[in-house]
């Protein structure tokens, strides 16, 4: 045996490879992306039709933005684990590397997906819902970024759980909602601050909260994932 | 066990009789009288039942999670039965706490439901319990069901504190300070406090008895299947 | 090459849904030896194979890989190559891509000439760029051999090694088995005794109740 | 395995505390009169009912009018759609949900919640006297 690479280097390469594999597979099959995009487009167009020529108050719109994002996440983020489980490749993956490498690879994939979807959602929102005006863009951008990470973090572990269950589709939002509620409420609050034109330092409490939420969920998940993954 | 059951029965009977029966007067002069509480008056007696329910729903949630963790470490399915039974009772008490709380809210705040932080937290706790059972019913292999349910309850437990802290920022509460409040004061006279603590102890005893019973029922049920 | 390599299992037991699949399974197999696992359908052959490959944990008992010092520090996944009916390839990828990803997910740098050599060995070189979903079941079975051997594992585990294979395929499997006994340990789980020419130890799952 | 779990638990607890720390300092969202006047949106105005000033139910418009004093002592007229809640007269403080009508200079409430005394000892007498 030649000089072995450091264990963490192998681990890192392993989780990056899982991300690349999922990304390649997604480009070929487009399961998650098409579901996500169609969901966002249909929901926002329903909102536009429902509002007609009226314009909704800005705090209602900032709340609705996160409703769209939450349900979009629910329609697409479970795909990465459910696909492995349905096609029977979960065991293949299990033979290849450690649970933690798999968890972080999948987390990274969901994160990229979530950031993409949220950017798309915000763009559509800005174009079609004229009442939605962001006065402090720094708060808004940070909120969207941290919100995406937080959503990806908690959806990934819940997706891993439901992939092993029978009624995957309906179970996903049921399990996710209580876990995501603190995150969503904080994001809605921070978005409202951005639309009210608050200064950046007025939102530090929210950001501190979001960062802690992300760290707590990711840390707990990385330990617990092993128990989900291994039969 | 029989002694325990008898003591529990006598204790609970005494608690119920005293909590409902002791007189409430404007100026308590003897030890067995409760001070009257303006506006609430006799309705304040619901406190002797509402607070123990809320307390037990949390105790049950914690014990369910502790046995879940124990299962993950030892992989003994009996721990899972304990965990699931505790969660079942927790759901029951959580529901009762929500119901008694809503009645009290009607007396005190003038509305059954106000999305008060405390009401919202207990609502989320109900949702977590609901999700926990939905998850359990969707997995057939017992070992798998046990680990996933345990993992879910841990994830729920680590996010729950965030919820407790975010809510007061969105709405400040009308709910009275919890009994273990920040000032360390108890706003009750001695008789009330004794009845209240006896009720708390009695319901806790009742919970552990129900839990034991539930575990025995579940275990014998599983043994019959196999 | 680790000639001191040894796998020993003591008192393995597996319970599913409070039903005991098997209990008191012990065996020991050394470098150059062949372990045969036999048993009726449902006796737990595949379960035992999964436990050896660390996909499942035993309910009781232990399984230990020993040999030189570093065997214990290497993840079990890197010591074992598995062929099993439960194993699935990513069918939207070609054979070549599957092997590339398999190696890089193991944390290694995939070597394309090594992959081509492997595909030649299992007679899939001419179809290396087609997605696996277009393969026949026999081709998929051969693909699994390439997958199992890609990282040169010292332990090869074969669950129903010849299923779906024609006579050429069976000859290929015999060849791979023979080579494995030169470089490590071979474990075969099957009911068809003609699959193996020789074995040094046997676990018969029918024997226990 | 074991140390990993311990490290993870420490991180989880530390960040739960870190995350909640910033929120312990400020409990906002109940506004005073000045805040209600400034805000365009629906707010929750918290204060005390001024018993000395006129209050009453107008049968024609079906509204209940009263005056409210916030913590800073600033007063404000409140018009509630509907009748006063049952225990309104005994409440220590009230919360009016609604928005401020800057044109007509009153707070238009859609709902009034009452906070009843929940401290059982000693204060029972004081409140009694006030009533």
Which descriptor suits the 3D outline of chain A? globular
Biggest β-sheet strands, sense, barrel of chain B: 2 strands, parallel
Distance separating the two termini of chain A = 32 Å
Over the alpha carbons, how many angstroms does the gyration radius of chain A reach?
19 Å
Percent helix of chain A, as a range, is: over 70%
Overall average pLDDT of chain A = 90
Q: Write down the overall geometry of chain B.
A: globular
Explain this structure:
The complex is a heterotetramer of chains A (231), B (226), C (209) and D (131). Chain A is mainly alpha-helical and 231 residues long. Chain A has one domain. Helices cover 83% and strands 0% of the residues of chain A. In chain A, helix 1 (7-29) crosses helix 6 and helix 3 runs antiparallel to helix 8 (168-196). The model of chain A has no long low-confidence stretch (mean pLDDT 90). Chain C is of the alpha/beta class and 209 residues long. Helices cover 30% and strands 25% of the residues of chain C. In chain C, strand 6, helix 6 (167-183) and strand 7 (185-189) form a beta-alpha-beta unit. In chain C, helix 3 (95-105) packs across helix 4. With 131 residues, chain D is α+β, with helices and mostly antiparallel strands. A five-stranded mixed β-barrel of chain D has the order 2-4-5-7-6. The chains are: A mainly alpha (231), B mainly alpha (226), C alpha/beta (209), D alpha+beta (131). Chains in contact: A-B, A-C, A-D, B-C, B-D. The interface between B and C is small, with 7 and 7 residues.
What is the compact description of this entry?
The complex is a heterotetramer of chains A (231), B (226), C (209) and D (131). Chain C has six helices and eight strands; from the N terminus they run βββαβαβαααβαββ.
Topology:
The complex is a heterotetramer of chains A (231), B (226), C (209) and D (131).
Chain A: H1 7-29, H2 31-51, H3 58-76, H4 79-87, H5 90-96, H6 99-128, H7 137-163, H8 168-196, H9 204-229
Helix pairs in contact in A: 1-6, 2-3, 2-6, 3-6, 3-8, 4-7, 6-7, 6-9, 7-8, 7-9, 8-9
Chain B: H1 2-21, E1 24-25, E2 34-35, H2 47-74, H3 77-108, H4 117-137, H5 142-170, H6 190-225
Chain C: E1 6-16, E2 19-30, E3 34-38, H1 45-52, E4 60-66, H2 76-79, E5 80-83, H3 95-105, H4 112-121, H5 137-149, E6 155-159, H6 167-183, E7 185-189, E8 201-204
Parallel strand pairs in C: 3-7, 3-8, 5-6, 6-7
Antiparallel strand pairs in C: 1-2, 1-4
Helix pairs in contact in C: 3-4
């Amino acid at each position: 045996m030649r000089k072995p690479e450091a264990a963490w280097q192998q681990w890192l390469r392993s989780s990056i490879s899982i991300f690349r594999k999922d990304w390649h597979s997604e480009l070929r099959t487009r399961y998650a992306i098409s579901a996500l995009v169609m969901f966002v487009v249909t929901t926002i167009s329903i909102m536009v039709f429902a509002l007609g020529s009226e314009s909704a108050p800005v705090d209602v719109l900032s709340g609705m933005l996160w409703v769209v994002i939450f349900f979009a996440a629910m329609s697409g983020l479970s795909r990465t684990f459910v696909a492995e489980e349905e096609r029977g490749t979960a065991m293949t993956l299990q033979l290849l590397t450690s649970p933690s490498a798999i968890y972080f690879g999948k987390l990274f994939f969901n994160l990229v997906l979530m950031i993409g979807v949220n950017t798309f959602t915000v763009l559509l929102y800005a174009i079609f819902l004229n009442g939605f005006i962001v006065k402090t863009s720094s708060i808004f951008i940070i909120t969207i970024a941290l919100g995406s990470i937080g959503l990806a973090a908690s959806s990934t572990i819940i997706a891993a759980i439901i992939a092993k269950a029978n009624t995957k589709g309906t179970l996903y939002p049921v399990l996710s909602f209580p876990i995501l509620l603190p995150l969503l409420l904080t994001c809605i609050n921070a978005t409202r601050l951005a639309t009210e034109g608050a200064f950046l330092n007025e939102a530090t409490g929210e950001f501190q909260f979001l960062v802690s939420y992300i760290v707590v969920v990711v840390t707990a998940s990385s330990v617990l994932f092993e128990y989900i993954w291994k039969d | 066990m029989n002694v325990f059951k008898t003591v529990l029965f006598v204790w609970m009977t005494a608690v119920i009789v005293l909590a409902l029966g002791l007189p409430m007067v404007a100026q308590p002069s003897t030890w067995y009288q409760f001070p009257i509480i303006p506006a609430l008056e006799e309705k304040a007696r619901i406190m002797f039942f509402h607070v123990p329910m809320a307390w037990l729903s949390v105790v049950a949630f914690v014990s369910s999670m502790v046995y879940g963790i124990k299962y993950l470490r030892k992989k003994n399915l009996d721990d899972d039965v304990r965990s699931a039974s505790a969660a079942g009772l927790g759901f029951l008490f959580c529901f009762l706490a929500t119901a008694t709380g809503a009645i009290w809210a009607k007396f005190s705040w003038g509305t059954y439901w106000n999305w008060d932080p405390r009401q919202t937290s207990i609502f989320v706790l109900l949702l977590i319990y609901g999700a926990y059972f939905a998850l359990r019913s969707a997995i057939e292999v017992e070992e798998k069901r046990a680990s996933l349910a345990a993992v879910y309850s841990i994830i729920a437990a680590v996010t729950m504190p965030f919820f407790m802290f975010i809510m007061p920022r969105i709405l400040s509460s009308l709910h009275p300070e919890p009994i273990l409040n920040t000032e360390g004061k108890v706003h009750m006279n001695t008789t009330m406090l004794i009845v209240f603590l006896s009720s708390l102890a009695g319901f806790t005893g009742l919970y552990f008895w129900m839990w034991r019973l539930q575990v025995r029922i579940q275990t014998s049920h599983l043994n019959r299947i196999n | 090459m680790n000639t001191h390599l040894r796998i020993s299992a003591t008192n393995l037991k597996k319970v599913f849904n409070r039903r005991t699949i098997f209990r008191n399974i012990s065996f020991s197999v050394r470098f150059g030896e062949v372990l045969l696992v036999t048993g009726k359908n449902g006796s737990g052959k595949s379960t035992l194979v999964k436990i050896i490959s660390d996909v499942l944990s035993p309910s009781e008992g232990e399984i230990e890989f020993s040999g030189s010092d570093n065997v214990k520090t290497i993840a079990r996944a890197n010591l074992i190559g598995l062929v099993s009916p439960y194993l699935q390839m990513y069918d939207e990828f070609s054979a070549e891509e599957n092997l590339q990803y398999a190696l890089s997910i193991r944390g290694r740098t995939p070597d394309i000439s090594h992959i081509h050599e492997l595909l030649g060995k299992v007679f899939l070189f001419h179809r290396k760029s087609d997605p696996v979903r277009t393969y026949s079941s026999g081709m998929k079975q051969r693909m699994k051999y390439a997958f199992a051997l890609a990282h040169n594992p010292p332990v090869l585990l074969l669950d129903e090694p010849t299923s779906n294979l024609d006579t050429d395929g069976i000859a290929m499997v015999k060849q791979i088995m023979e080579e494995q006994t030169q470089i490590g340990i071979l474990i075969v789980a099957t009911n068809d005794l003609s699959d193996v020419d020789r074995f040094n130890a046997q676990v018969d799952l029918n024997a226990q109740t | 395995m074991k140390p990993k779990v311990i490290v993870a638990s420490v991180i989880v607890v530390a960040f739960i505390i870190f995350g909640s720390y910033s929120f312990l300092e400020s409990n906002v969202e109940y506004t005073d009169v000045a805040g209600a006047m400034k805000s365009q949106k629906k707010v929750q105005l918290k204060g005390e009912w001024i018993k000395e000033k006129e209050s009453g139910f107008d049968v024609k418009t079906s509204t209940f009018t009263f005056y409210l004093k916030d913590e800073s002592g600033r007063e404000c007229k409140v018009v509630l759609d509907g009748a006063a809640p049952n225990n309104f007269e005994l409440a220590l403080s009230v919360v009016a949900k609604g928005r401020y009508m800057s044109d007509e200079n009153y707070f238009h409430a859609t709902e009034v919640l009452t906070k009843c005394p929940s401290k059982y000892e000693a204060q029972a007498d004081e409140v009694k006297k006030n009533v």
